[in-house]
Amino acid sequence: MRGSVTRVRTSTTAFLGAPHSSDQVVARVRRRIARFSGYREGEIEPLQVVRYQQGQKYEGHHDFFDICDVGDKQSSGRRQVTFLIYLVGMPEGETGGGTGFPDLGLVVAPEAGSAIVFNDCLDGGAEDARSLHQGLPPLQPSTVKMAINAWIRSHEIAGAMGG
After folding, report:
1. Could you write out the three-class secondary structure of 84-132?
2. Confidence of residue 23 (pLDDT cuts 50, 70, 90)
């Protein structure tokens, strides 16, 4: 895993192989995401594991790319859908560590084995501003939030095969 400290993100992240990983667990997760979403596996980016410890966060952001990423959008399209799969739940008494949607007034508390799924773009392809979300910091010293991010593109990812 590598530490990521930017002006908006202070979590630790790691990617789980290429889109067509030989790891059977990763492959099964990708197949389930494709089956649930109706998108092809080739449209799913490599899965990303994120870990947040006390005080670590990811400030409000959208998962679709901004206009500076024109080349990436042209080859693989925009991120259409975000899956956030919670690997652990929050311990008794932990009031932080959720996923917040500030414009919707909603906070989702992690439950092990559950996932939240939301559209980053509208059906016509326009960015959906309601998808603004944030990774809220765990407040207790012993709390660790772990999840898997899966982003689905509108087109086959450049260099991906199959689907």
Report:
1. EEECCCCCCCCCCCCEEEHHHCEEECCCCCCEEEEECECCCCCECHHHC
2. confident
